[in-house]
Structures are given as structure tokens and as C-alpha cells.
Amino acid sequence: MFGTSRLILRGLDQDADLTALVNWCGDAETMALMGRGPLVPTSRDQAKQFFLPRPTGQDLPLFAICEKQPDRSYPLELGADEDYIKACGPAIGILNFQPVKFDYKNRIATLGLVIQDKQHRGKGYGKEVLLWGLEYAFMELGLHRMQLEVYSFNEPAIQLYRKAGFVEEGRMRKVYFKGGEWYDVICMAILEEEWMELRKKLQK
Ligand SMILES: CC(C)(COP(=O)(O)OP(=O)(O)OC[C@H]1O[C@@H](n2cnc3c(N)ncnc32)[C@H](O)[C@@H]1OP(=O)(O)O)[C@@H](O)C(=O)NCCC(=O)NCCS
């Protein structure tokens, strides 16, 4: 269930993923696409905040994206002393359903997605994991709306979200200051019924 043809989605794990997370936070180019705050170096202790349990009722999943290994068969059959997290392999990115607070009354989640390792971008992984994530969000978690914000200069992400059925709902002008320039934020969302239509087309 937690995977696509080429990827596994497993829980993000402090023991397995902390070092990767600290390294990723050192990649200012990618961090500038992800958050609105000032770009600052991240310590191990700060990165640990990412793994803290969230308050009950705001605890949607946070997935590590891993590549399936050519020398293994799937679903994974584990040896007696084998560890599932290790068997899934190192994370190449993160799928996050609640980088901001989950609105559980209205069943609205906010999406965050990064294929962190640049050599893994442009191979269709982002689209694969996003379509998987939407199916999981609407058909398993019972969400009603998935929304996100993306910077106006982030063309790869905007194109990807459009292809996955997200609709542009509006634009906040000059919200984000980067490199001495102001940029707009584009608000996008997909509704449950729009996903149901799209998945019918994808299944044909
Ligand atoms: C955005 C991101 C997740 C896309 O993942 P990816 O695996 O590289 O994307 P895919 O290979 O699945 O491409 C899917 C679609 O995205 C678009 N896309 C991907 N890379 C692109 C690029 N460099 N330029 C323009 N469009 C691009 C294309 O429409 C592509 O569809 P196509 O293959 O049919 O042309 C990835 O670039 C990333 O992690 N970026 C940094 C973090 C980020 O910006 N996250 C989003 C914050 S809102």
C-alpha cells in the first residue's frame, strides 16, 4: 500500500533520517523553495524538531520517499533480524501532509513535497509520489481538500501541481523576499470531487 511502482513511502525516522535532514537543510537553494522564513543554517538539535510528535488531531503522516532497490522484491519480505526502515533504504525526499496546521473539522490538509537529491529530480518521481499521495489523502484519510502555496518562480513545482489536478485559486502579491527581490505566492488546491474525476481518467 505504501508505495508506487518505483518508490516506497515509509515513516520519517529520527535514527535513519536525521543526518540526511541536517544535510538537506544546508542546501539553501532548495530551502529557498520550501519556506518563507530567513535562510539560516540548521543544527542537529533544530532538525530534531521535525520529528517531534504533533498534537493529537493534527497528526497527519509525514513520509520519507525511498527508491525501490533493484536487488529486492516487493512487497518487502523481511528476514527475522531485518529492520523495515533500513530495508526501505535511504530517503531521497519527503511527502508532508501538514507543513501547517491540519484543519480536521473541514478535512483540509496542506501539502509539502520535496525530492531532495537533485540527481533524482526530473525522473517522474515527483509526479509518481504526488499522485500516490492524493489517492492516499482522499481515499484513505478521507480528506476533502488538499491545498498548497508555491512561489511564482518555482516553475517545475507549478507544472507538476497542474498536471496532478491542482487548480490555481489566487495569488498573494509580493509576499516572499529572496535575493533582494519580491515574489508572489500562488495558492493552489484540489478538491475530493476533482480528484475522483482525475483518477477515473488515470485508471483508463
Ligand atoms: C517540484 C519537484 C517535487 C518535482 O519533482 P520531480 O521528480 O523533479 O518532477 P517529475 O520528474 O515528476 O516531473 C513532473 C512534472 O513536473 C514538471 N517539471 C519537472 N521538472 C521541471 C523543470 N525543471 N521545468 C519545468 N517543469 C518541470 C513537468 O511538467 C513534469 O512533467 P513531464 O515529465 O510530463 O514534463 C522537485 O523539482 C523538487 O523537489 N523541487 C524542490 C522542492 C520544491 O520546489 N518543492 C515544492 C515546493 S511548493
Number of strands: 8
Calculate the terminal CA-CA distance, rounded to whole Å. Answer: 20 Å
The largest sheet is: 4 strands, antiparallel
* Rg for CA atoms: 17 Å
Taken from the alpha-carbon principal axes, the silhouette is globular
Structural class: alpha+beta
3D structure, described in words:
By secondary structure, the chain is of the alpha+beta class. It has a domain of 138 residues: 3-Layer(aba) Sandwich (Aminopeptidase). The chain is built from 7 helices and 8 strands, in the order E-H-H-H-E-H-E-E-E-H-E-H-E-E-H. A 4-stranded antiparallel sheet has the order 1-2-3-5, with helices on one face. It has a 4-stranded mixed sheet with strand order 4-6-8-7. Strand 7 and strand 8 form a beta hairpin. The longest helix has 16 residues. The two termini are 20 Å apart. The mean pLDDT is 93. The chain binds coenzyme A. The site of coenzyme A has 22 residues, from helix 2, strand 5, helix 5, strand 6 and helix 6.
